[in-house]
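Case 433 in the screening queue. Each case pairs one protein sequence with one candidate compound; here the compound is uracil. For every case the pipeline is the same: read the inputs, emit a complex structure as tokens, and attach any notable structural observations.

Predict complex for case 433.
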Amino acid sequence: MNIQRIIEKKRDGLEMSRAEIEYLVKGISDGSIPDYQIAAWAMAVYFQGMNERETAELALAMAYSGEVMDLSPIAGIKVDKHSTGGVGDKTTMVVIPLVAAAGVPVAKMSGRGLSHTGGTIDKFEAIPGFQVERTYQEFMAQVNRVKAAVIAQSGHLVPADKRLYAIRDVTATVESIPLIASSIMSKKIASGAQGIVLDVKVGSGAFMKDRMEAGKLARAMLTIGRSAGREIIVVLTDMNQPLGKMVGNALEVKEAIDTLKGKGPADLEELSLHLAAHMLVLGKNCTSFAIALEKARELLLSGQGLAKFQELVQEQGGRLDYSRADYGLPQANWREKIIAEKTGYISQLDALEVGRAAMALGAGRGKIGDLIDYTVGIKLLKKIGDRVEAGDCLAVIYANGKKSLLNGYKLLKNAFKITDEPVKCGELIIEVL
Ligand code: URA
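Case 433 output:
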């Protein structure tokens, strides 16, 4: 087999055989194919695409390029959820306890935030003392005992994706549907769950800016999941504006707890219940989506979801004080308001700009290994469709430094647009596949 010939074939729009895909993935994992040839191949895929068969075979070859999680010591049908990345998306912190409270096991391996999108592991690490590293035995034992555990994805899982993603990140080849679909699904397959709910974000703050493209990504991931024998539900959801009101790690933990208390923002509650309900169906806990949605709501309103969250946090060493308004989460030193300059209606609250503002404050990392500040972030007081008077507070910035505050302020101010005419907010849950 010859890598130059494989690149040539893809460049010319021809199909790769299974043997060629497996050869390529092996070469990516063991380092025998150099970065420049991998980059050339990724660019050929960017322009020529891959068909369904090639995409599924790439995902499977990558999934089995390293360790594969064996969840068989856990009793019951294991379910998982994944978001393609958004701003203010803390649904995992709400959904896991709800699903676990129903008795469906969730063995969650999550990633850290990169670029303007947040990561679940960073959010959990904003809780003082919370441990995201566990041995395999501890992880299995905790899921059997508590029905939920959240750990950072092991470095031994899917080495081919780790290397390929790092190369794509610096060669302008991230935005390719077959490459994104195979990257995400390889990790989900290697993580071992039988049922997977995928939240594909659509809009300015998402990888997929328009619905057509998001639909294509969703279908590609469904095909891969099925060919790996997994049950998959894909939900397309809006990411033109951030989800909820809080953006930034400790602030998002607070909002997730508020939501589990039944006092969270309506959009976050709606999406969390919706995703949890699909997971309950996949876990064979409920026979229909309507029953599952009622059950998820009941688990939230009765406080069983919150109790499960408290148990999960305690199990993993986290220390929170639920009697305090801030739950004992770390706080930033400075606050700065963004004020509306005119009267009207919020027509835009650009999720990408809000995410960039949070990054400028120090809530995210530009590259792997950068340190983040858990305390900084943004509280949004107005969202799309809201009426505002000149002088109203649109948002509050939480910062720890003058320069970062100034940079975050400029970006956040630009995220808002106010028009004279009333504006209707788009649908949060766009489609379920
Ligand atoms: N998330 C991933 O894990 N991979 C991609 O390619 C894009 C988003």
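Case 433 observations:
- The chain is about 45% helix and 15% strand.
- The chain has three domains: 3-49, 79-315, 334-419.
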